[in-house]
Write a structure and sequence with these properties.
Elements: E1 24-32, H1 38-45, E2 54-56, E3 75-77, E4 81-86, E5 91-97, H2 108-112, E6 117-122, H3 130-140, E7 144-149, H4 159-165, E8 174-177, H5 182-201
Parallel strand pairs: 1-5, 1-6, 6-7, 7-8
Antiparallel strand pairs: 2-3, 4-5
Helix pairs in contact: 1-5
């Protein structure tokens, strides 16, 4: 049926189409506290134009959202960020960035469904916000790696000191990164994929 005045909805751009060689897709979630760099990471590494749900921050968030170290931040994710990256010709990762504020954590349940693994972004200026994040992943049995996003004014600690402070087992990889750089964000994802592969080989990945 032809409706007068109806508009033809354009198809996806060529660069957004899934590679025809893709045989497997893996869902990955990127989590962390408010302002730690989740949206930046998805944007830097995604091969397609990322979908974001950022909204302008208002006075309503004052006293509710902890923006320590992010005083210049003017927008925040309220639902999710979404991107995609091809790891090999056959393997594609779908990336879902979660909102950082605790009042939006109820959205995490849906985002975690079907996720094979996660990246926990950490800000050394406020390590304490990472505990609840990692606790939620552990409760749901989602394997994760920890990526320390390098902020210019953030203190630097040896990996073993961070492992002790975050109470992480020797098994969980910890690495530094700069989420503004595509190569650095890609290396974090590759570390996660190697970790997931090792768990699968030992039968620890269910």
């Amino acid at each position: 049926m032809d409706f007068k005045g109806s508009e033809t909805i354009p198809g996806p751009r060529a660069e957004d189409q899934l590679p025809h060689t893709a045989e497997a897709a893996v869902k990955i979630v990127i989590v962390g506290g408010f302002g730690v760099g989740k949206t930046t990471m998805v944007g830097s590494v995604s091969e397609i134009k990322p979908l974001t749900t950022e909204e302008t921050m208002t006075q309503a968030g004052i006293g509710v959202d902890d923006n320590f170290g992010s005083a210049s931040k003017t927008a925040t994710t309220v639902a999710m960020d979404f991107g995609r990256i091809k790891i090999t010709d056959q393997l594609v990762l779908y990336l879902f960035g979660t909102p950082g504020q605790e009042r939006f954590w109820f959205l995490w349940n849906g985002l975690f469904e079907g996720a094979l693994g996660a990246v926990v972004l950490v800000d050394t200026r406020r390590l304490e916000v990472s505990f609840d994040v990692m606790g939620r992943l552990e409760e749901r049995g989602v394997p994760f790696v920890v990526a320390v996003n390098s902020f210019p004014d953030g203190p630097r600690y040896p990996v073993e000191d961070l492992r002790s402070a975050l109470d992480l087992s020797e098994q969980i990889p910890i690495l530094e990164c700069d989420v503004r750089r595509r190569a650095s964000s890609r290396d974090v994802l590759m570390t996660l994929m190697r970790f997931l592969h090792s768990l699968a080989m030992t039968g620890s990945l269910t």
